[in-house]
Amino acid sequence: MNSLKLIYLVLDGAAGDPSLGTTAYLSASKPNLDYLARNGRCGLVYTIGQGIPPESDAAVLSLLSYDPEIDYPGRGPIEALGVGLSLEEGKEVAFRGNFATVDPLSKVILDRRAGRVFTPYEAKELARAIDGMKLREGYVRVKESVGHRVVVVIGSEKHKLGDQVGNTDPGYLRKGKISVSASKFDNRVSPCIPMTSREEDKITCELVNEFTERAIGVLDRHPINLMRKSQGLPPANAILLRDGGSRNPNLKALSSKFTGLSFTALVEMPVEIGIARAARMNVEVLPPPGSSKRDEEYRLRAEKTINAIERSDVVYVHLKGPDEPGHDGNLKLKAKIIEEIDKFFIKELLERISWSNTAVLVTSDHATPCQLKSHSDAPVPFLLYHLDIKPDRLKSFDEVECRKGSFGVIEKGSQLLPMILKELQMIK
Question: pLDDT tens digit string along 115-167?
């Protein structure tokens, strides 16, 4: 084995699907990413598997070499760990939630993310208003996350609770522990429906449905939402839940899976924070997106990456930026954010990293085509660059060119990291 180190960069949702039309990678001016692709080796990867449009959590687990079918505890417990909550197993079920805007009577969803426009104060006050809610046969714990995101824990002192339950967010379909984006759905708050005949799953659904109704009643009248309405902002008067789980995440440490290597994660969002903690990586939490101007954000992340690679063998960096404009169908903004990452993050690394002993792997956790405004199952491009590699000499880093790369198409994201570490001779 040699002394190479690896920067593992994941650009959240940056990929698109060229079969649907142009992509942000194809339209962006990104000379530094293109340089890496031209002088590195490239390919495509299905981050979970063909035919599965993944959520970020399952995709990130897969990209870190875990099998989501075996190791995945559910999005809820991962996000709970990310915001510092643990579960009393058997008595509590954690869910990922979105503050949303609904019609209180019909339950028609007017905005699944309440406009995305949130101050930390607003999110904290709204979460506080329903945290500790007493249900007929249970209770609720609520913790605000980032922006419109929230973690909800449903618990009961009287009953055992199950986590094989459906989502109240109709935009995601539950398939086992993994949820996938729904291409078409009834735009109303879904009732929570048990996925089995077990009594514990039925009880969980009863508690979830009671919480959903009561939360709308509290939130719709909350002073924060009255103020938002007066300012022309959509009220955050409901919470859409998905991906319930009752088991605290307990992954095999990456340093044990890949003996002799140390891992650091530079992460922004609670879901990635939770995964990194569960994998027992050294975790450095970055300020969430939007905390400062994007050029300052990416320069800060470059600085943190350069510092981290000095003390760790593998540095995992997750940048959220490109995903949200993909969900909004805003191709121009998505391309602009990729250009800013290229200019203020990639360029800094190229100019300041000692590439004689450092490699970089760049990919995405999933495709978020602007044409769909949701995640898709399209494979995402990836590149590997280091000085001793025999380059593919591709023209640019995008979905079309990378299909021509020498790595070909990788069928499962869980294969990617072991393959690259072996390629670099960092493991046997």
Answer: 887 888 999 999 999 999 999 999 999 999 988 999 999 999 999 999 999 99
Residue 179, both tokens: 């949820």
> Under a CB-based contact definition with an 8 Å cutoff, are residues 346 and 36 in contact?
yes
Give the architecture-level CATH label for domain 5-73+250-423.
3-Layer(aba) Sandwich (3.40)
350: its two tokens:
């190229």
- CA angle 141/144/145 to nearest 5° reads 125
The pTM assigned to this predicted structure is 0.88
Q: Which helix (H) or strand (E) holds 197?
A: none
* pLDDT tens digit sequence for 293-335: 999 999 999 999 999 999 999 999 999 999 999 999 999 999 9
Instruction: Give the pair of three-digit tokens for residue 334.
Output: 């998505």
Residues 415 and 388: beta-carbon distance below 8 Å: no
For 196, counting Cβ atoms within 10 Å of its Cβ (0-12 exposed, 13-18 middle, 19+ buried), the class is exposed
In sequence order, which ranges of 24-162 are alpha helices (DSSP H)?
24-27, 31-38, 56-63, 68-71, 75-82, 120-130
What's the N-to-C CA distance of the chain in angstroms? 7
Residue spans of beta strands (DSSP E) within 221-350: 238-245, 263-267, 282-285, 314-319
Closest CA to 151 of 212, 39, 75: 75
What residue ranges do the domains of the chain occupy? 5-73+250-423, 77-245
DSSP per-residue string spanning 363-401? E-SSB--TTTTS-B---EEEEEE-TTS-----S-SSHHH
To the nearest 10 degrees (0 to 180), the angle between helices 120-130 and 199-220 is 120
356: number of Cβ within 10 Å: 10
Q: From CA 54, how far away is CA 69, in angstroms rounded?
A: 12
Q: Single out the residue of 22, 80, 15 nearest to residue 44, CA to CA.
A: 15
- Tell me the two tokens of residue 26: 């194809």
By 3-state DSSP, what share of the chain in percent is helix, strand and coil, each rounded to 5?
Answer: 35, 20, 45
Please report the beta strands in 113-237, taking only residues with DSSP state E, as ranges in sequence order: 139-144, 149-155, 172-175, 178-181
Quote the Cα angle for 95-101-102, to 5°. Answer: 95
Extract the runs of DSSP E, i.e. beta strands, from 118-275.
139-144, 149-155, 172-175, 178-181, 238-245, 263-267
Closest CA to 264 of 1, 6, 2: 6
Closest CA to 413 of 9, 64, 56: 64
